[in-house]
């Protein structure tokens, strides 16, 4: 089981989501909760497609951190 980093960005209509370790795997959602659910589904479908094509499954390697700076 892999745990992939999901990056969510606020948009004018909700949230855009991308998964850095899975190029081309993106999703959206009107709320953060919906965006997370949709991201999980997008990841599952993306991995399924890779398996069907005989492609390797990328290992999860991205990490994230918050950095506080004076504005």
Give a structural overview.
The chain has 71 residues and is α+β, with helices and mostly antiparallel strands. The chain has one helix at 32-52, and strands at 7-10, 15-18, 26-29. It has one domain: 2-Layer Sandwich (Double Stranded RNA Binding Domain). It has a 3-stranded antiparallel sheet with strand order 1-2-3, covered by helices on one side. It starts with 6 loop residues before the first strand and ends in a 19-residue tail after the last helix.
Task: Describe the structure concisely.
The chain is an alpha+beta fold.
Can you count the helices?
A: 1
Helix proportion range? 25-40%
Sheet with most strands: strand arrangement: 1-2-3
Structural category: alpha+beta
Instruction: Give the N-terminus to C-terminus distance in angstroms.
Output: 40 Å
Q: How would you spell out the order of helices and strands? A: EEEH
The domain tally reads 1
Q: Please identify the oligomeric state.
A: single chain
- CATH topology, by name, is Double Stranded RNA Binding Domain
Q: Evaluate the radius of gyration.
A: 14 Å
What's the count of strands? 3
CATH architecture: 2-Layer Sandwich
Mean pLDDT: 97
| Poorly predicted runs of 5 or more residues | none
In one word, what is the shape?
Answer: globular
By CATH reckoning, the class would read Alpha Beta
Per DSSP, what share of the residues sits in E-state strands of 2 or more residues?
Answer: 15-25%
What's the story with the biggest beta sheet?
3 strands, antiparallel
């Amino acid at each position: 089981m892999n745990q992939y980093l999901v990056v969510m960005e606020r948009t004018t209509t909700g949230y855009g989501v991308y998964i850095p370790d899975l190029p081309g795997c993106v999703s959206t959602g009107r709320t953060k909760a919906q965006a997370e659910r949709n991201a999980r589904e997008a990841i599952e479908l993306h991995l399924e497609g890779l398996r069907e094509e005989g492609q390797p499954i990328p290992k999860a390697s991205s990490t994230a951190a918050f950095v506080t700076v004076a504005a």
